[in-house]
Amino acid sequence: MKFKSITSVGKRKVYDLSVKEAEHYVLENGVVTHNTGSYYSADNIFIIGRQQEKDGTELVGYSFIINVEKSRYVREKAKIPVTVKFDGGISKWSGLLEIALESGHVVKPTNGWYSKVNMETGEVEAKKCRLADTDTADFWDSILENKSFKEWVRGKYQFAKTDSNVPTAAAVDVEQEDE
Fold first, then answer.
1. Within a domain: residue 116?
2. Edge-to-edge strand order for the sheet containing 79-85?
């Protein structure tokens, strides 16, 4: 690596390094040595990855993984799955299966099958569902109403409370109980 120039910045020993023929340079450890001001000043930085969703050989949409690189509201390094199909847009139940599997509210008793877990008793329901059968309100309503699932999701993703003018999930739950 050859330096094009080194410029003193301010009163402290801080230097602006310019690498010849490059606007920024990524070191072996992943640190960007130039033009990082936008990274340090940003409130949120999300990096989005994409995988193809296929039905046989036909491309029907994409599964996105939103990686939280930096945030003041969501835990850093969190991965948020979102599925988008060409014929229906964002799936209503998008990403919930991965989250419920991680939380233990859903298990995969055998390859290709999914079952709900009663979190109070720890029993796995006898009814098994295929992946396509999990995209229904019948499958998700009881899990989404489960207090332990809400708490697990909040603990996994919420980092800080947002603006007091915007209701948080806890505030919405309290408002619904009052009605």
1. yes
2. 45-55, 58-70, 79-85, 89-90
Residue 147: which domain range?
Answer: 92-159
pLDDT category at 16 given cuts 50, 70, 90 is: low
Q: Say what the pLDDT of residue 132 is.
A: 87
> What is the average pLDDT across 130-141?
92
Domain CATH number, residue 155: 3.30.250
- Would strands 3-9 and 79-85 be described as parallel, antiparallel, or unpaired? unpaired
Residue 77 lies in a domain: yes
Burial class of residue 96 (count of CB atoms within 10 Å of its CB; 0-12, 13-18, 19+):
buried
